[in-house]
Amino acid sequence: MPHYQTWEDFTRAAEKLYLTDPMKVRVVLKYRHCDGNLCIKITDDVVCLLYRTDQAQDVKKIEKFHSQLMRLMVAKESRSAAMETD
């Protein structure tokens, strides 16, 4: 399971994974209060991408990216066209 150190690499890989097969991709957000870690995991049961942070400034980035993915998952228009415009 690849654990990404930089946010940019993770978002690029996650977008690529989502666009390959949007119906199989799942997103999981997990916060561990005892460690102060926020973890976002994106998987399609073959590939699993993981980004973990304890920085407060990364929370906004994760929240924005997560909401962007959720909008794409419920959109009726073409998912690839919507990803390119955001």
Automatic annotation (TrEMBL):
Q: Report a single Gene Ontology molecular function.
A: 7S RNA binding
Q: By its UniProt entry, which SUPFAM superfamilies does this protein fall under?
A: Signal recognition particle alu RNA binding heterodimer, SRP9/14
Its predominant location is: cytoplasm
Q: How does it assemble?
A: Heterodimer with SRP14; binds RNA as heterodimer. Component of a signal recognition particle complex that consists of a 7SL RNA molecule of 300 nucleotides and six protein subunits: SRP72, SRP68, SRP54, SRP19, SRP14 and SRP9.
Role according to the record: Component of the signal recognition particle (SRP) complex, a ribonucleoprotein complex that mediates the cotranslational targeting of secretory and membrane proteins to the endoplasmic reticulum (ER). SRP9 together with SRP14 and the Alu portion of the SRP RNA, constitutes the elongation arrest domain of SRP. The complex of SRP9 and SRP14 is required for SRP RNA binding.
Family (UniProt): Belongs to the SRP9 family.
- What name does this protein carry? Signal recognition particle 9 kDa protein
Q: Say which species the protein is native to.
A: Pelusios castaneus
Taxonomy-wise, where does this protein's organism fall, top ranks first?
Answer: Eukaryota, Metazoa, Chordata, Craniata, Vertebrata
